[in-house]
Specification:
The complex is a heterotrimer of chains A (about 450), B (about 190) and C (about 280).
Chain A (H helix, E strand, L loop, with lengths): L2 H10 L1 H23 L4 H17 L1 H14 L3 E5 L2 H14 L4 E4 L3 H5 L2 H7 L3 E4 L2 H9 L15 H12 L8 H18 L2 E4 L3 E3 L4 E6 L3 H8 L2 E7 L3 E2 L4 H13 L7 E5 L7 E7 L3 H5 L15 H5 L1 H6 L10 H11 L16 H5 L6 H16 L3 H14 L1 H17 L2 H4 L20 H8 L2
Parallel strand pairs in A: 1-10, 2-3, 2-4, 4-7, 5-8, 7-10
Antiparallel strand pairs in A: 5-6, 6-9
Helix pairs in contact in A: 3-12, 9-10, 16-18, 19-20
Chain B lengths: L2 H11 L19 H11 L3 E3 L1 H9 L6 E3 L24 E5 L2 E3 L5 E4 H4 L4 H4 L2 E6 L4 E2 L2 H8 L6 E5 L4 E2 L7 E2 L7 E5 L1
Chain C lengths: L17 H11 L5 E4 L3 H6 L1 H13 L3 E3 L9 H8 L4 H11 L4 E4 L2 H9 L8 H10 E3 H8 L12 E5 L2 H6 L15 H6 L6 E2 L15 H4 L1 H17 L4 E4 L2 H13 L5 E4 H8 L2
Parallel strand pairs in C: 1-2, 1-3, 3-4, 5-6, 5-7, 7-8
Helix pairs in contact in C: 3-14, 12-13
Classes of the chains: A alpha/beta (about 450), B alpha/beta (about 190), C alpha/beta (about 280).
Chain lengths: ~450, ~190, ~280
């Protein structure tokens, strides 16, 4: 199903879709309130944007600097040109460690690489430890939001799920009770795991350190109890200097959830005695996007999810309707770069309202890129019916005579045809809306009479 | 060609324009750092506690096993630092000392030397961090200025007890890390 | 103080900004600025009253206004559907139609934004195209920024809900966005708030999109209508009598839904309100 069909399906459950919309708006609102407490908020966005602009222009240098410094600190660096290579590298590390059960904290990159099914196929048990991710993992679903993976689920559904999987009391929907059940269940996994995988929020070129931000503490519980820490990092996650973290950490949590900072901001520089840290630097289409002048800036993204929370379409259609690992506005400008055909409806799943661009902490011109992707997509599709009608439209609008004539015919038709002909299934506008009332004369006709 | 080489070569071949790095200004912040810090900790569902109140709590015996890195609470510490931090899986309370803290968001910096074992602030059921009043800075920029190029294998900012809102956006305190954070300003 | 030929009940306090100065310096040299009215195609066909109101307001404010009869469309629907490259003919025709004028004024933020930012480069007409981009204005911003109107007087005792159309809002920055940390401002509110009896109603979501979005209204019909319903609910639940805004595309979409749902809320383009109070 295309996005419009998925959206229509989602909206059929009016109560649930309204709840989804209200819940995400509530988070957008928290973000607003928090940002208004920082007088220099817009300046911070500009700084973050400029820093990331500098990163994209010097990416190769920063990546090499990062590798040099991280290696000096005893971290193993791997490079993966695509998802397959990333997954193979992870598996090879696990095999070396003789490990068949791991814990993983939130990493959208590993989702992008479809790491879990690959590892499972190769006999490795993967436990996602972020509460929201564990929930969707139990359900066999991908996350529907990059920061709030289970935002599409109500507590009743989670209660039922935990009753089945964790033996919690049937019907007990208390979030505290359910969270404690997950805490006990996952604690066993943390204590047993020898290898833990995390994502990377920021990699600092200057020092070779990387930062992982969580509220739950699951990333740290995993890595500090394990012997081997594997960190999957998109090559665009680099920032030049340590003190740039001041800018990004002030923006990230406020944009994502409206908190003044995430609970834990762990800076990894070298492994604990006797342990290992591996970083896998992943391309998987990022260098290709870097080469696209119009869409390069999408790589500035710090994965805060604010664009999803603010998007009136995302709120009313849900993450799954996008069928892309990263959904919402940012997903709609990243994913067509990965697979234009599959994701061609995404840039059109927008009114170009521009709200996403205004909340983006790194000032990506998201709505502009959505417009530009539309131009690429129609070019790639060649002339279609829509294309022909648009060309036809240009013909009409190029010539005043044909414009006036076709306008007159249209108004005459609308005025005189019976409602049954006008409001039929082919008239999509008229399904839930009335057409505008038809005036007797156009403005042009009025001007001819009244302002000769 | 290795993957690294092909990635680097692909990037370099684009010959992108280099944009300059901006200067980060000296943003101010709260004038009353202690008050701002306390407000932030409360906002983060942490608790500001006086040393006396903490002692009363410790004396009540509600935390059977306690590990303290700080001399002032040595008497209450009844756990030795283990070789393997897994042994602390049932630890009730850890008392640690933070190096400094940030008023705008309650973030407290600790590194390997303060933690002793990295898992401790997470594996413990409850957590106390001592913060010196004089060590407060206004914002994260000042925090990184203060850190400079101080090198520790690991360091973190902790700003509150572990939490999640993954179940219908209901805030639950106590996810996988410590279920409470008590901060004592010394 | 520059003297205007304006009608009674109008009080205009002029702010000497650069844009106003350009306009008034033309006036002082006895060359009255020639203003061309650009009317979006669907307003011409379906809402001539809005076009008439726009024209009359400008005339009442002392402007010399012409409506070039051979104008057609700005090309926005085609460009937003992904066919910007096919709007070259329309764009060139547009540039030529409006080349001779000092200002172009349009009662639609989205059309103005399209002309300025999304029309393809017209080879051979580069100078004219650049000049056009600098002289084309949306109706309310023309009144506040070029004519320098600080407030209007008159009576309009109604509860008004303002719909901040997105392209005007975040494209032309006609009012402050709820997303940004900026001092609140609104060009439309400036024009309306001093009217006697007018109550500017605060909404729950001040600038959420109505869901029209051009071809989106048809290609993502379910979403489009739901967004429109939600906007209406916001206004109606705050007892708005008249929903107003600067873009008839949004209003057409919201009005269509309201009529189908038999909701009694009324709709007026801001030009219609101003024309009503200016005599």
């Amino acid at each position: 199903m295309s996005h419009p069909q998925e959206a229509a399906e989602f909206l059929k459950d009016t109560a649930k879709s309204k709840w989804h919309d209200d819940t995400l708006w509530f988070i957008r609102d928290k973000r607003d309130k928090m940002s208004k407490t920082i007088p220099e908020w817009e300046e911070l966005r500009e700084l973050a944007s400029s820093i990331k602009d500098n990163v994209l222009g010097n990416l190769a240098d920063y990546l090499e600097e990062f590798e040099r410094n991280a290696s000096k600190n005893g971290i193993h660096i791997h490079w993966a040109k695509d998802a397959e290579e990333h997954n193979t590298i992870v598996l090879s590390i696990l095999k070396k460690k003789d490990c068949t059960a791991i814990v993983k904290s939130k990493s959208i990159l590993t989702e992008e690489c479809h790491l879990n099914p690959f590892l499972e196929k190769n006999g490795v048990e993967v436990v996602d430890t972020d509460l929201g991710e564990r929930i969707v993992q139990f359900l066999g679903q991908p996350p529907s939001h990059i920061v709030l993976p289970a935002i599409h689920l109500k507590k009743g559904e989670i209660s039922e799920l935990f009753h089945e999987r964790l033996g919690t009391e049937k019907g007990n929907e208390d979030p505290y009770y359910l969270t404690q059940a997950a805490r006990h269940h996952l604690r066993e996994k943390f204590l047993a795991a020898k290898v833990a995988i995390t994502g990377v929020n920021f990699g600092v070129a200057e020092t070779g350190e990387f930062v992982v931000c969580t509220n739950e503490g699951n990333a740290d519980m995993g890595v500090h109890l394990a012997d081997t820490h594997i960190a999957s990092m998109g090559i665009e996650k680099i920032i030049p200097k340590r003190n740039h973290l001041g800018v990004f950490l002030r923006l990230l949590a406020r944009s994502a959830t409206g908190q003044n900072i995430t609970n834990y901001n762990s800076h990894f520089r070298s492994p604990e005695n006797g342990k290992e840290i591996h970083i896998i630097l992943v391309d998987n289409g990022r260098t290709a996007q870097l080469g696209r002048e119009n869409f390069r800036d999408s790589l500035k993204c710090i994965r805060c999810g604010a664009c999803m929370n603010t998007c009136p379409i995302y709120r009313r259609s849900g993450g799954f309707s996008y069928k892309s690992t990263v959904p919402g506005p940012i997903g709609s400008i990243l994913s067509p770069g990965l697979d234009l055909q599959k994701h061609s409806s995404l840039p059109f799943a927008s009114t170009l309202c521009g709200s996403c661009t205004d909340v983006c902490p790194v000032k990506i011109n998201i709505h502009e890129q959505l417009y530009l992707w539309r131009q690429e997509i129609t070019k790639a599709q060649g002339t279609s019916i829509k294309g022909l009608s648009m060309k036809f439209g240009n013909g009409i609008f190029k010539s005043p005579l044909s414009y006036n004539y076709s306008g007159k015919i249209m108004r005459m038709a609308l005025k005189n045809l019976p409602k049954s002909l006008i409001y039929n299934p082919a008239n999509v506008w008229g399904k839930q809306r009335d057409l505008p009332p038809v005036p007797n004369e156009s403005f042009k006709e009025w001007v001819k009479k009244n302002r000769p | 060609m290795s993957s690294k080489d092909s990635i680097i070569e692909k990037i370099r071949s684009l010959k992108l324009d280099q944009k300059p790095l901006p200067e980060i200004p000296d943003f101010g912040g709260a004038t009353d750092l202690v008050q701002a810090f306390c407000t932030s900790i409360a906002e983060n569902n942490g608790e500001i506690m006086s040393a006396e109140d903490l002692i009363t709590k410790l004396e009540s015996g509600i935390y059977p096993s306690i590990f303290s890195t700080d001399v002032s609470f040595e008497n209450f510490s009844n756990q030795a630092l283990p070789v393997d931090v897994h042994s602390f899986s049932k630890l009730d309370l850890a008392i640690l000392k933070g190096q400094f803290a940030v008023a705008e968001n309650g973030a407290i910096w600790l590194d390997d030397a303060d933690l002793r074992l990295r898992a401790i602030p997470f594996i413990t059921e409850h957590l106390v961090i001592l913060v010196s009043r004089d060590s407060l800075v206004a914002n994260m920029h000042q925090a990184y200025d203060r850190l400079g190029d101080q090198h520790s294998g690991f360091g973190l900012f902790i700003a509150g007890p572990s939490k999640t809102a993954d179940i219908e956006q209901s805030l639950v305190i106590g996810a996988h890390g410590a279920k409470s954070l008590m901060v004592v300003l010394v | 103080m520059i003297v205007f030929n304006f009608k009674i009940r109008l009080v205009a306090i002029f702010v000497f900004q650069k844009d106003c100065l350009t306009y008034y310096s033309l006036m002082e040299n006895n060359t009255k600025p020639q203003i061309a009215l650009f009317i979006p195609c669907y307003v011409d066909q379906f809402y001539p009253n809005v076009a008439i109101a726009t024209l009359e307001v400008l005339e009442k404010l002392g402007c010399q206004v012409t409506y070039p009869m051979n104008q057609t469309c700005c090309g926005q629907p085609m460009a937003n559907a992904g066919f910007e490259r096919d709007t070259l003919g329309t764009t060139k025709h547009f540039i030529e139609t409006f080349a001779a004028y000092d200002y172009v004024v349009c009662p639609s933020g989205s059309c103005v934004l399209h002309v300025k930012e999304h029309s393809p480069k017209a080879q051979g007409l580069e100078k004219e195209q650049e000049a056009l981009h600098n002289k084309i204005f949306e109706f309310t911003e023309f009144l506040t920024d070029i004519l320098g109107i600080e407030k209007l007087e008159g009576s309009f005792p109604h509860r008004i809900g303002y719909h901040a159309s997105c392209q005007g809002q975040r494209g032309l920055r006609l009012s402050s966005s709820s997303e940004l940390n900026e001092k609140p401002f609104s060009k439309a509110k400036k024009l309306l708030e001093n009217l006697e009896g007018l109550k500017w109603v605060e909404l729950a979501r001040t600038d959420e999109c109505c869901g029209f979005g051009g071809t989106f209204a048809v290609s993502e019909e379910a979403l489009s209508v739901q967004m429109g319903k939600d906007r209406l609910e916001d206004h109606i639940s705050h007892q708005v009598e008249i929903l107003t805004g600067g873009d008839m595309s949004c209003i057409m979409h919201l009005q269509g839904i309201a009529q189908r749902q038999k909701q009694s809320i009324k709709f007026k383009h801001i030009a219609e309100i101003l024309n009503q109070i200016l005599k």
